[in-house]
Amino acid sequence: MTPHGEGMPDGPSEPSPGRWSDLDRPPLNAAGLRRGLVRAGGLWTQVDVVQRTGSTNSDLVARAGAGGLEEGVVLVAEEQTAARGRLDRQWTAPARSGLFFSVLLRPAEVPVARWGWLPLLTGVAVATGLSRAAGVDTALKWPNDLLVTVGGEERKAGGILVERAGDDGVVIGVGVNVSLRGDELPVPTAGSLALAGAVSTDRDPLLRGVLRSLEDWYGRWRAAGGDPGASGLQETYAAGCATLGRVVRAELPGDRELVGEAVAVDGDGRLVLATREGVQEPVGAGDIIHVRAK
Question: What pLDDT, on a 0 to 100 scale, did the predictor assign at position 90?
């Protein structure tokens, strides 16, 4: 589940009728977010909050393509009407029920061949930030899903989508279900921080925590020239990856399918599967289905 979209603020939104009041799901404090995140020498240069848009990723890609947008722009939506995940899957959520945002990065110091680590880096940063700010144990499903445990079952509570923006830019979209209740989940396999027992569902500190964590991890990775080993990213990702150690089915481009045990994430960020034929095959793209729990 990830955010995106081209949109301008709709102005102050009227509370929609329903059992959720503004006290239950208060709006984000845009001025407070800017004060807490935008600072001299820091990564985040601009924080914009819109009431409603189709997709924050689409919006930010379009703005970056128009030129003149510096690294570190953050676009946050209170509600997305056309949010997309990987493979153009749709993801819906009530207004103000989650974190829906995109960021623009320009990792000029890092070879493009290593940019494939950005969704994994973002997963580590989001999981780390939410663990601290919400007190929820999270796990990562390769390559871009955030998992939480609800009633003893793993559920998807968030996702990441990375898109190129021109020759030197990358837009990363993140969506996280924060306050969704059971009867609001889009699919039975979805979850939320609230359902996973979060100690806080206040989205302002959650967003600040995630963005500070992303700034930290991106800085380490960039300083290491994108080297996943030297930056500590590869080891940290593997430690938090729920896919490793499981038998999985990889649905690959071209209607191919591969079944094997996920044994490693290699230096290129690919998932390495050990097949029954005794072959270790790296998977760089595709849909991964967990077949056997750890």
Answer: 64
Contacts within 8 Å (CB) and 24+ apart, 163-166: 163/4, 163/57, 163/61, 165/60, 165/61, 165/64, 165/65, 165/104, 166/64, 166/65
| Sequential DSSP letters for 233-268 | HHHHHHHHBTTTTSEEEEEETTTEEEEEEEEEE-TT
Which residue in the block uniquely carries the two structure tokens 């445990």?
Answer: 149
Phi, psi of 179 (to 5 degrees): -110, 10
Distance CA 96, CA 98 (A): 6
Check: CB of residue 13 under 8 Å from CB of residue 51.
Answer: yes
C-alpha span between 272 and 246 (Å, rounded):
11
Identify the CA nearest to 105 among candidates 11, 26, 170, 188: 170
Task: Give the tens place of pLDDT for each residue, 39-96.
Answer: 999 999 999 999 999 999 999 999 999 988 999 999 999 999 976 555 455 667 899 9
Q: Which residues contact 52 (CB under 8 A, 6 or more apart)?
A: 7, 10, 13, 77, 78, 79, 80, 81, 95
Read off the amino acid at residue 13. S
Check if the beta carbon of residue 29 is closer than 8 Å to that of residue 204. yes
DSSP state of 68: -
Tokens of 206: 């959650």
Question: What pLDDT does 83 receive?
Answer: 65
Six token digits for residue 171: 């837009």
| Omega within 30 of 0 (cis) for the link into 143 | yes
- Residue 97's pLDDT is what? 97
- What does the pLDDT look like over 150-190, one tens digit per residue? 999 999 999 999 999 999 999 999 999 999 999 999 999 99
> What is the token pair recorded at 115?
């940019």
Give pTM, 2 decimals: 0.90
